[in-house]
Fold:
Amino acid sequence: MRPFFKYLLWLLSIFILLLFFLLQTSLGNHTLEQGLSLYLSKKTKNHLEVSSLNINDYPILEMNVTVNNGAMVHLKGTATKSRIEMDYHLVGDSFHYNNIILKNKLNIKGHILGILSKALIRGEGEICEGNIVFDFIKTPNAFKDINVHLSSVNSEKVLTFLHYKPLVTGKADIDATFKRFSKYQKDGRALILMHNANMPTVSGSVPFDLKTEIEFKDMEYFYKGGIKSKIGSLTIVDGYYHPTKREAKSLYALNLKELAYFEPFLKHTYKGAFESEGSIYYKDGFHVTGKSNKFGGLLEYLYQNKSLELNLKAVSLVKMLTFFSYPALLNAKVYGSIDYDLEDKIVLINTKLKETRFRKTKMTDMIFNSTGINMLQDEYNNSSFVGGYQNNLLKSTLNIDNGAKHVYLTDTTMNSKTNSIKSRFEVKIAGNELYGDIYGTLDNPKISIDMQKLLKYQFNKQIGNFLGIENKNAIKKELKNVTEDVSKTLEEIDVNSVKEKAKSFLNGFL
Structure:
């Protein structure tokens, strides 16, 4: 038996020396820290480096751990193979653990309590330039019973952390509760509130308030919310999102008090208010439908594949042109379609105009002063407008017709950038015919009348009156007959009578 005790004492001596080396010497401590770093890194599948370790008061431990070369956590308390109870202080300019990546400063203090496979973790501190208070239970494969409250956090940094494009700026308050939370299993709710937020790419510097509620049911998210500001509101209901299918849909109601605020975003000046409601669907691209009664009649629209299709039913032409910042020369109800290719910025217009009347403008005043034609007294129900818009240029043909009278504006070019107009016109109103050009600015157009055609028309008209004939072809035929027979009939004509008729014709013409 003596050799056995001799070897046992020898082994105990070696073990004591090893413990002394590990616990009482700097080299031993460093070796223990390295071993523990390797163990923790392997267990967590992260790079954890124990930079200091104090086990002098074991089972009370105290150590500093650097997490993936980023933030450092200071731990102090008791830890065994089965149970942990420790205070912690997590601080750093960034934090990376598993799929959690935060590229912002954080400073959080808290407590860890429970068995290692089911530990309760509490904490509070500073994150994303705001404050956080939380508690949850961490299991090997999921988080459970989560309660998180974020106050006055930077929304841009939160959205970046969640891998969303940071379109919104401002401070946010977020309350979230989850019974469970893992990659494929989520059961909980989140409430997001923002006050005096901004969306620079859309509304410039105009602040708004936001409220959003989200319900998580595993891989299905249900949401509703709204945005309110001095320029309008947007309400979202019946929202649905499936992250793995990348599918989303919702109903919406939009009420904008003044679209001029959105000029930087829309790349065009729109004037006035706009109201509509419809649906949004996303699956390999946005699909937005809607309708609006803002323009008197019904405007229906569909956005998909970077194109916008508008269908108009009895829409007020005045309200629509005013909305697009163009002068309205006519009152009319518009029926038809407008197609807008947003990528190439091309607009195609194909419409019919009903109950059309001219509005009192400088153009109608000039026509009346020049010719005596009153363009305001008639209504036209067989009219049309077709055209195309690209690069600030609107090229179009406008036919205003009621069968007996008409006004045609052809080869029309309007430039919204230079505020100019150029067009040919033909008018048949009140027994008169008029031809010419429109040119100048949209605000102050000028008219050039083709006097040669006007004089020819007036001459033919007066000759017809003189001969008692209205049809042009009949006038020409009659003039030919008169010319051929003039030598034969001259002796039979009462000269005084011819003089009186000629005098009457000239007076009427002049």
